[in-house]
Amino acid sequence: MIKSRLDPGGEDYLRRREAMLAKLAELDAEHAKAVGGGGEKYVERHRKRGKLLARERIELLVDPDSPFLELSPLAAWGSEYPVGAGVVTGIGVVAGVECVITANDPTVRGGSSNPWTLRKTIRASDIALRNRLPYVNLVESGGADLPAQKEIFIPGGQIFRDLTRLSAAGIPTVAIVFGNSTAGGAYVPGMSDYVVMVRERAKVFLGGPPLVKMATGEESDDESLGGAEMHARVSGLADYLAEDEHDALRIGRNIIGSLHWRKLGVTPFEPREPRYPADELLGIVPEDLKVPFDPREVIARVVDGSEFEEFKPAYGTSLVTGWARIHGYPVGVLANARGVLFSAESQKATQFIQLAGQSRTPLLFLQNTTGYMVGKDYEQGGIIKHGAMMINAVSNSTVPHLTVVMGASYGAGNYGMCGRAYDPRFLFSWPSAKSAVMGPAQLAGVLSLVGRASAQAKGQVYDEEGDAAMRAMVEAQIEAESLAFFLSGRLYDDGVIDPRDTRTVLGLCLSAINSAPVPAPGGFGVFRP
């Protein structure tokens, strides 16, 4: 068992806790924007039509008192589009089956899709495919947001391709249509395995009456052109005709329940709560990410029984590795202890990743890294080849990977610790997380040195005042672009989470991962680097 050295009454702890609570208050405010949809005016208009909101539909679909893990709630943050991107995605339990659920928010521009809606939806279908989770679409969409069509039309075809690939892989897809499903949106029910439509509400057509009139001169009305009853009785697109939204959700639950879906992964051991309270996670990460912290304090508050079998504890001490369980699921943990990765840490990580591959154990990466060490001695000592070895191991490991960015995630350390480009099954950030090619001061300093050397080579006097202004501008820009909200808005993670929820979130992800069978082993054995 890990013996905690954290002092919850200490000055450092209390200061860090207050800083984290302030960040969480900001996070709550941004989440509220996503929950608010298109704003009070459009929410009220939607309710007056007798319709449920997107999250209300999800709440009625999932099992009572079961968790719903919302994904990418900050999508589009910092862009011209509303926070949340006009769609809700996540993992919920429906009739006892974990499913990926996507729900258009019709209070945001009629549920039309902008570029971030597209990316968020594609991410959801990828999660469904890789983890073998049935996929439920709660549809009410006006198709593409036409002013942004140049960014949506061509890549948007992947949504429909993904639906057919899910079906081909034997993963059921269900579309429940509550309102308009127009133009490209019509292909969502068209390419789903099961389709439910709400009588007198659902309207599914490639082109509505105005477009048909324009294209062919034909006069038509919504119901005869694409109404739910027509599709149930004439076209055959609707498999089930629901009387209202509640009935549609009941039918959707029955469809999932009739699948007799079974998990194909491992059965977890009996879970045990950590011996230390999750609330103490608020005071571990320093405000200044250059100050190191012991990741064992995080591990002790996340893993079962606070028990952690550390691997190679005396070697490569800047990286902590070892075995544990989370909600009964075995995991291998890699956690940065002092930020910098040296050759020893890289070799240790490589061996550990290969051992996890041999035992088919999922890996959890807890990131707080400034990258691989630089300098003459380290270059001569082989830091490039050792870092490459670690990145090679991460790239070719076939067990599921989970990543949590707790603090810094800079340079190639982001890659070696399984950042977004290395395709972890799930990746979440704490509000304290920052990620960039390097720290703001370092990046501005590099640009300053390059400019100074260029001026010297040309025999010019260097503009010190301009240099100071440039450094301040670059530092401010990189600081803003490295923050957790900014990165989450671009879907570089699956959400910014409260540190206290880390164990729960990881448990939900590990359960979802095990809907799929354990992946086949990789093609290499363990070697001692």
TrEMBL record:
Start and end residues of each CoA carboxyltransferase C-terminal domain:
273-520
Q: Does the keyword Cell division apply?
A: no
Q: Name one GO molecular function term.
A: transferase activity
Transferase: present as a keyword of the record? yes
Q: Which residues form the CoA carboxyltransferase N-terminal domain?
A: 20-271
**Keyword list, A-Z:** Transferase
Provide the protein name: Acetyl-CoA carboxylase, carboxyltransferase component
Its source organism is Nonomuraea jiangxiensis
